[in-house]
Design goal:
Blueprint (H helix, E strand, L loop, with lengths): L16 E4 L16 E2 L2 E2 L16 E9 L5 E6 L7 H9 L4 E2 L2 E2 L2 E2 L2 E9 L13 E9 L10 E4 L4 E4 L5 E5 L7 E4 L7 E4 L8 E7 L23 E4 H4 L41 E4 L2 E2 L18 E7 L14 E6 L7 E7 L2 E9 L6 E10 L1 H8 L5 E18 L6 E18 L11 E20 L2 E18 L2 E21 L2 E20 L22 E11 L2 E8 L5 E16 L3 E16 L5 E12 L18 E12 L5 E25 L2 E24 L5 E15 L7 E2 L6 E10 L4 E10 L3 E2 L2 E7 L4 E6 L5 E2 L3 E13 L4 E9 L7 E6 L6 E5 L4 E9 L1
C-alpha cells in the first residue's frame, strides 16, 4: 500500500493519503510585522501508510503532531474518533513524516498542527484529472456560516475525494450520473452525508453546512507563535476571552486576571496597576495608540466593543523601545481584520444592550466596513430604586460607546488602509437633598462626565524585507467633575502620530526604528481644595479638608508635547538566542499661558535576551531604563510645579518558560524595579518673579518593587482552557528624604487567580473563576480634633498605610447554552459575579467626628442574564 502527499485543492484520491489540514479561516490575514510566520511543509518522498489487512472500508484519521525546529515529528496523537488498526497505521506513518520547519522570519521554530491520513479501499481507483467537473460546492460552518478550508469531501463508493480551498470551495470530477452520497468526516464537526443529483453533462453545485461538535468551536491555527518582541508577554485570544467567568465577555476586563496586575475593585474605577506602579504609570494601547479611558462607570464594561478585537497582549515590564512615556507596564489591544461576508450580533442583558454588523462594500474589492454600539440602562433602574430617597438624579448613571471601522486591502497591492472612529461617554448627576448621616457637612450636588472621541487612520506598506506602519490619531477628551462648590473642567484636543519601519537585513539581524509623537492641547478650569487632588499615599484618607481655602483657576490653555525617537535591533548570533538592544529618546515640553514653557529630555537604553534552549525550555532576562513625564496637571500651576522632572525607573527581569507537553505552558519570572524622581507633594515654598509661591510638588520620592510571577496555562483546545496565575510582590515608597519605607497604596503581597472553562455537548459550556488577594493597605485614624470656628472635626492619622483591610476572595461562575441554526446562533448565558455573596472590604468609613467606623463593602452577588444572537 502506498501514499502520496496531497495539498489542499488537489483533486486526486489515493490509498493512505497523507495531507496537511489547515484550520478553518474566515479570511486571509495580512502578514504580521516585523517577521512573517511560514508554516511547515512536507518534504522528501511520499509517506507510505499501510492499509490494514482484512479491512474493506475507508477511513480518515486526523492526528495532532508536533514538528520541532528541525522538521522532525516529535509526537503524534489521534484526535479523530477511535478507528482501530487505522489509527495505529496512521501514527506509525506520521513518525516518518519530514518537513521543512516552520519559520519565524528566518528562524526555525517548533509548531503543532493537524495532519490527516485518508484510507481508501484498495479496489477504489481515482477518476482521471482530465474529466469534467460534475459536482462542486461550498462547505461552511453551520451557525457562523464561515467558509471552511482544508475539509475533505468524498464519495466513498467511487473512491473520489476533494479538499476545500481557502474559500471553502471543492470540485469532484468523473462522477457518473445518479445520486451519489457526499460524505464529510472532519475533526470538530459531526459527520455529514447527503445525496446529490448528478445529470450527464451538467454540473451539480451544492452548499454543505457542517454542525460543530461543540458550539462555536475553538480554532487551532496552523502557524508558529507570534513574533516575540517583548521579554514578558501574555497573549489572550478573543475566543478565550468571550466566556471567561466574571468578565461578561469583555476583553479588557480580563487584564485583572493576569499575573502582576493588582485588583483595584469596581469602586476604584478599574484603575490599571501593574507590578506595583501607580495608576497612570501603565497604559492601554489599541493598535499602537493609547485609549484614554479604559472602562465605563465602575469598570462595568470597557469602552471598546470586544467583538472587534482579535486579542490582548499583556506586557508587565521590560518592554521594548517601541513604547515610551510610562514606567509601569502596558496592554496592547489588537483589533481584528474585518470579514468580507456579512456578520453581526445583538446582545441584551440586565445592564446594557449592544450590537454590531460588518460586511464588505459591494463594488469596491478589498473594502469592508463594521459598525458597533452599546448603551446602558442602569439609569432607568437606579431612578426607580432611588425614588423616595434623599438622592435625586438630575442625570442618572448612563454610558454609551460606538465604533466605526473601515478596512481597505486592495487585491495585489502592498498597501493597506484602516480607519477607526471611536466614541464613549459617561454621565452622572445627582442631588443630595439633605446632609447624610455619616457627615452632616456633606450635601449639595454631584455631577460628572467623562468621554472621548477618536479618529484613527492607519497605513501599512510591505515590500520584501522592508515594511512601514504608520498611524495618525485625533482625540477629543472631556472630563468634568463637580461636587458641591468644587469643580474641574477639561476639554482637550489631542494629536498623535506613530510610525515604525522594520528591515530584515539578514537571517541574523532585524532592524527597527520609529517616531512617536503626541501633542495634548486642553482648556482647563477649576475651583478646588488641594487635598481634593488625592495622590498616591493619600487614597485611604478621609477626603478634602474643610478647613482648606478654595483655589480657583480660570479657563487656561495647557499644552503637553512629547516627541519620542527610538531604534532597536534583533540579533540572533546563533540559533535559539535572541538579543534585543534598544535606545529611546523622549522629550517633554509643557506650555501654559502666562507660565512660559519648560522642556526636559531623557535617554533610555534597554536590552533583553531570550534563549530557547530546546523546543520545551526557554530562558529570558532583561534590563532597561524608563521615563514618564508629568501627567494630570502635575507640571501646571495651581495643580503642580512647572519644574518637576520626568519620573524614572530601572526595571530588571529574569525568568524561564517550559512546555512540558503540547497545550501546557508554565512561566516563572522574578522582577525588580527601582523608582526615582517620583513626583510627590511638598510643603516648601519658592520665590518666582519676586513672589513667594508654594512648591506643591517636587521629585523627592523614591520607590522599590520586587516579586515573583507564576503562570500555569492550559492553552486553547477543543473543550478546555484556563490558567492559574500567582503573584508575590512588595511595593514600597519613601515620600521625603529621611522618611521610612511605607507600603504602596495597592501593595498586594499575594494575588492568586484560577480560571477554567469547559465545553460540553449540546451547546453547553461552564466556567469558573476564583480569586484570593491580600487586602490593600490603609492609613488608620487614631482620633480627631475639633475646630470650633468651622464647627468640624479633623482626623488624626496614624502611619501611612500601616494597616490592611481583610483579604479579598471571590468566586464567579458562567454558564452558556448555544443553539446553532443554519445561518445564525443564539447564546443564552448566566454570568454570576461573587457567587457565594462575600462582599469584599474596600476600605473604612468614619462618622463625621471619627468616633465610629465601619467597613466600606463592595458589590454583592450580581447575576447577569443575557441573550446574544450572532450571524
Amino acid at each position: 500500500m502506498t501514499a502520496a502527499p496531497v495539498l489542499a485543492g488537489l483533486l486526486v484520491a489515493i490509498p493512505a493519503l497523507a495531507q496537511p489540514v489547515p484550520d478553518p479561516q474566515p479570511e486571509e490575514k495580512p502578514p504580521k510585522a516585523p517577521a512573517p510566520i511560514t508554516p511547515p511543509r512536507p518534504v522528501g518522498p511520499p509517506v507510505e501508510a499501510e492499509y490494514p489487512v482484512g479491512e474493506t472500508n475507508g477511513a480518515r484519521v486526523v492526528l495532532e503532531i508536533d514538528v520541532d525546529a528541525h522538521g522532525q515529528v516529535s509526537a503524534a496523537r489521534v484526535v479523530s474518533p477511535p478507528q482501530p488498526r487505522f489509527d495505529e497505521s496512521a501514527v506509525a506513518a506520521a513518525r516518518r513524516l519530514r518537513f521543512e520547519p516552520a519559520r519565524r522570519g528566518d528562524e526555525p521554530v517548533p509548531v503543532r498542527l493537524q495532519f490527516a491520513f485518508n484510507f481508501v479501499p484498495p479496489t477504489a481507483a481515482p477518476a482521471p484529472s482530465g474529466y469534467q467537473v460534475d459536482v462542486s460546492g461550498t462547505v461552511r460552518e453551520r451557525g457562523s456560516r464561515r467558509r471552511l478550508s482544508g475539509i475533505e469531501v468524498s464519495i466513498p463508493e467511487l473512491g473520489a475525494s476533494a479538499v476545500t480551498d481557502p474559500q471553502g470551495r471543492f470540485e469532484l470530477r468523473g462522477v457518473p450520473p445518479g445520486q451519489p452520497e457526499l460524505v464529510i468526516a472532519a475533526p470538530g464537526y459531526q459527520r455529514l452525508a447527503v445525496q446529490v443529483a448528478v445529470e450527464a453533462g451538467k454540473r451539480s453545485d451544492t452548499s454543505l453546512l457542517l454542525e460543530p461538535l461543540f458550539a462555536n468551536p475553538f480554532e487551532a491555527t496552523v502557524e508558529g507563535e507570534r513574533t516575540r518582541e517583548e521579554l514578558s508577554r501574555t497573549t489572550i485570544t478573543s475566543q478565550e476571552i468571550q466566556r471567561i467567568p466574571g468578565a461578561q465577555g469583555d476583553a479588557l476586563k480580563v487584564i485583572e486576571d493576569l499575573p502582576g496586575v493588582a485588583r483595584t475593585s469596581p469602586i476604584g474605577g478599574g484603575l490599571l496597576v501593574i507590578r506595583g506602579s501607580n495608576p497612570g504609570d501603565s497604559l492601554v494601547y489599541l493598535d499602537g495608540e493609547p485609549i484614554p479611558l479604559l472602562y465605563h462607570f465602575g469598570a462595568i464594561s470597557s469602552t471598546v466593543n470586544p467583538d472587534l478585537l482579535e486579542g490582548i497582549e499583556f506586557i508587565p515590564g521590560n518592554f521594548s523601545a517601541t513604547y515610551g512615556d510610562l514606567i509601569g507596564g502596558l496592554v496592547e489591544v489588537r483589533s481584528r481584520s474585518l470579514r468580507e461576508e456579512p456578520h453581526g450580533y445583538a446582545n441584551l442583558n440586565l445592564l446594557e444592550a449592544s450590537a454590531m454588523v460588518e460586511t464588505e462594500v459591494p463594488g469596491v474589492p478589498g473594502l469592508s466596513v463594521a459598525l458597533a454600539g452599546r448603551r446602558s440602562y442602569i439609569d432607568y433602574i437606579l431612578r426607580a430604586a432611588a425614588s423616595g430617597s434623599d438622592l435625586t438624579f438630575t442625570v442618572a448613571p448612563r454610558y454609551y460607546d460606538a465604533q466605526l471601522r473601515l478596512d481597505w486591502r486592495p487585491p495585489g497591492s502592498s498597501h493597506s488602509l484602516q480607519f477607526i472612529a471611536l466614541t464613549s461617554d459617561d454621565k452622572l448627576g445627582l442631588v443630595i437633598a439633605r446632609p447624610i448621616d455619616q457627615d452632616p457637612n456633606v450635601s449639595g450636588n454631584v455631577d460628572t462626565e467623562t468621554g472621548f472621541q477618536q479618529l484613527r487612520l492607519k497605513h501599512s506598506w510591505r515590500r520584501g524585507p522592508l515594511s512601514v506602519d504608520s498611524i495618525a490619531m485625533y482625540e477629543r477628551l472631556v472630563l468634568r467633575f463637580a461636587i458641591a462648590q468644587q469643580n474641574l473642567d477639561v476639554l482637550s484636543h489631542d494629536l498623535f502620530l506613530r510610525s515604525t519601519a522594520s528591515f530584515e537585513a539578514s537571517e541574523a539581524l532585524y532592524l527597527f526604528a520609529g517616531i512617536d509623537l503626541s501633542n495634548r492641547r486642553g482648556t482647563v478650569s477649576a475651583s478646588f481644595q488641594q487635598s481634593l487632588a488625592v495622590r498616591e499615599g493619600e487614597f485611604n484618607n478621609q477626603g478634602p479638608r474643610v478647613d482648606e481655602p478654595i483655589t480657583t483657576l480660570p479657563p487656561t490653555l495647557v499644552n503637553r508635547f512629547s516627541p519620542g525617537l527610538w531604534a532597536e535591533a534583533r540579533i540572533r548570533p546563533f540559533p535559539g538566542l535572541t538579543l534585543t538592544p534598544g535606545l529611546r529618546f523622549d522629550a517633554y515640553v509643557y506650555g501654559v499661558a502666562e507660565q512660559g514653557r519648560t522642556t526636559t529630555a531623557t535617554l533610555s537604553p534597554r536590552l533583553t535576551a531570550r534563549w530557547e534552549a530546546s523546543s520545551a525550555w526557554a530562558f529570558k532576562a532583561g534590563a532597561g531604563l524608563y521615563s514618564e513625564g508629568a501627567r494630570n496637571g502635575d507640571a501646571v500651576r495651581p495643580f503642580g510645579n512647572p519644574n518637576v522632572l520626568p519620573q524614572r525607573a530601572l526595571q530588571l527581569t529574569a525568568g524561564a518558560e517550559v512546555r512540558p507537553m503540547p497545550g501546557l505552558f508554565f512561566s516563572a519570572e522574578a522582577f525588580y524595579k527601582k523608582l526615582s524622581d517620583i513626583i510627590v507633594r511638598s510643603s516648601d515654598t519658592e520665590v518666582v518673579g519676586g513672589q513667594t509661591l508654594p512648591v506643591i510638588l517636587d521629585n523627592a520620592g523614591i520607590g522599590r518593587v520586587y516579586g515573583v510571577e507564576l503562570l500555569f496555562r492550559k492553552e486553547l483546545t477543543t473543550r478546555l482552557f484556563g490558567w492559574i496565575a500567582y503573584t508575590f510582590s512588595r511595593s514600597q515608597r519613601i515620600d521625603r528624604p529621611g522618611d521610612q519605607w511605607r507600603l504602596f497604596d495597592f501593595d498586594q503581597t499575594h494575588n492568586l487567580t484560577a480560571i477554567a472553562s469547559y465545553k460540553l455537548p449540546r451547546g453547553w459550556q461552564i466556567g469558573a473563576r476564583f480569586r484570593f488577594i491580600t487586602g490593600n493597605p490603609e492609613t488608620p485614624v487614631l482620633g480627631s480634633r475639633y475646630q470650633a470656628p468651622l464647627d468640624v472635626y479633623l482626623p488624626i492619622y496614624g502611619a501611612t498605610n500601616s494597616e490592611r483591610v481583610p483579604p479579598f476572595s471571590q468566586l464567579d461562575v458562567r454558564v452558556d447554552k448555544v443553539w446553532t441554526f443554519d445561518a445564525w446562533t443564539l447564546d443564552a448565558y448566566l454570568d454570576v459575579l461573587n457567587a457565594y455573596n462575600r462582599r469584599p472590604v474596600e476600605g473604612t468609613l468614619y462618622s463625621y467626628d471619627f468616633g465610629q467606623s465601619e467597613y466600606l463593602r463592595g458589590l454583592p452577588i450580581i447575576p447577569t442574564l443575557g441573550l446574544k444572537g450572532s450571524f
